Amino acid sequence: MKKTILVTVLLLAISGNMQAQLVKFGIKAGLNYANQTGTDITINSTNYKTDAITSYHAGLVAEIKLIKGFSIQPELLYSTQGATYKNAVEEFRNELGYLSIPVLAKIHLNKTVSLDLGPQASFLLSERKEFDVEDSETFDFAAVGGLGFDITKNFFLQARYVLGLTEASKEAQTKNSVVQISAGFKF
């Protein structure tokens, strides 16, 4: 009986150690350089040009190793995006706060660099706007591509581009476009 318990505890310990090597959790934060682009940015019969805004993102990361050189990285981020709208008479800023869920395929090019590609679903949580228009769309779908750099075993840097595929506004034909630079730590 004692041998059975000892073998069971030993197998659970080995299994837990193997699982810890296959899945890593972490946190990350960084800067967004966000803009909204479109062919027809017209609000209340007025045409506008957009300028990018600098904002931020932060959240949780998991990396699930599937095979050597390939892993999946789901994330749960709070990300602010938007743009500054300008015409000859006025200028205003629209900042959107999203709960973003990217699920990226990580192709490890070597021990340090990975190519990160995948979809991202975002849900609108907040909107700070300095103008009076109808609300923005509550769901945003995007394609994500970028590079990851493992500086140490636990510390990493990431650079990526998020290309919005759905309309960001009910009133203007715009899509989100974001360049993200991040730093993070995996446990």
UniProtKB/TrEMBL annotation:
Span of domain Outer membrane protein beta-barrel: 19-167
Record's signal peptide: 1-20
Keyword Transferase: no
Coiled coil location: none
Tagged with keyword Signal: yes
Domain of life: Bacteria
UniProt cross-references to InterPro entries, sorted A to Z: Beta-barrel_OMP_2, OMP/PagP_B-barrel
UniProt entry keywords in alphabetical sequence: Signal
Protein name in UniProt: PorT family protein
Organism from which the protein derives: Flavobacterium gawalongense
Origin organism lineage: Bacteria, Pseudomonadati, Bacteroidota, Flavobacteriia, Flavobacteriales
